[in-house]
Amino acid sequence: MNQLVRMSQIGEAETIKEPSADLRVPFAQSGAFVCKFIIGEPTERAVCCGAPVQDGKSWCAYHRRIVFEPTRPGRIR
After folding, report:
1. Is residue 47 part of a domain?
2. For a disulfide at 60, which of 33, 51, 55, 67, Cβ 3.0-4.6 Å?
3. Domain range spanning residue 48?
4. Is the pLDDT of residue 77 over 70?
5. 2, part of any domain
6. Is residue 39 part of a domain?
7. What mean pLDDT comes out for the span 5-18?
């Protein structure tokens, strides 16, 4: 998998249902309002999630919870 996954986030992502594999589209053909999370390895034939997104985001709610690490109090940036 090419995206960063923190073990602490795996349980959180399970609270949101994973998008259907039927929504997957080739990355080169993905539109402006679909999840760009790449499934598998990023190659010239990459396939992305394809689930609908809101507010111009790049990833659906399921994949956004996997990709982003929540901020922790007292963390130095």
Report:
1. yes
2. 51
3. 7-67
4. no
5. no
6. yes
7. 60
